[in-house]
Protein: Transposase
Organism: Tenebrio molitor
Amino acid sequence: MPQQLTSIEVSRAVTLLEEGYSQRYVAQQLGVVQGTVWKLWKRYRETGTVTRRAGTGRQRKTTAGDERFLRLQALRNRTHTARDLQEDLLRARGTRISDQTVRNRLREVELRPRRPAKVPKLTRVHRQSRLEFGREHLNWQLRHWTPVMFSDESKFVLTGNDGRVRVWRRPGERFMPNTVHKTVPFGGGSIMVWGGITVNTRTDLVVIRNGGLTARRYIDEILKPQVIPRANVIGQNFIFMQDNARPHIAHIVTDYLDDQNICKMDWPACSPDMNPIEHVWDQLEKRVRRRPNPPITTEQLAQALVEEWDNFPQDALRRLIRSMPRRCTALVQARGGHTRY
């Protein structure tokens, strides 16, 4: 069924169509069926306007009061489905409409169902340490970030849980406290990998096999063969960033890095949004899933990840690291809370 578009969406659709984009592409961008775009474009070409003639079109089934109720109810109950809101409206005001009409009315006020952004749960201590990190590095320029190696582990799964929960949110609300899904680290998966990136180079992607990562394995399989050689190339300005996972902060690891004269960055807990390598993990997952023949075994997954890591453009890594001044500014502005990164 054709869908109603807001005035903003109509203007955007016409602009894209005039620029030569296909109706199918425009429909995908707006999240509507292609028939809606076709009718809009037909009316625009025939009349020169996208405004309907007075008295045409279906009579609206909702009053201004109904629509205000839906908007407020969606904002107060971000995880309510369109069906829930439909029932809320019927109970509260006696107005019976379809769940599609609910979605249409909320879209008119730029409220759309989205998957909640996943962010770590932050305590007061977390926020304070994050704020201190942002302030300490607020005046760092790009040259200060150039010798820093950002590292991290990540788990990848063969089949992921899409997550059926959706939240109603408007543009710019992705990281509001009541529109995010708070997670705890390592909620499952089948393969763990480790990698490190700098402005000008990267490590190999290390697949951690045969059990979890211990402090001894961290030294033998990652620090010795991957970090130390690159630290020697970069020189005395080298700074190593690692998070506060247990193997990273074990005494034997700390002693080893001290013996190698490695300068460690003091990293705040629960701060994946400050680590640019997190975006690399997201891109690797997308690249692997877009393959013509996606992996169906863990060995195939490991091989695909290594290949995509090796093929990841260095320019893209460079741009991610050069975002650090903006990340620190955003962190201070959020007073240690979640940022859009």
Remarks:
- The chain has two domains: 1-54, 119-333.
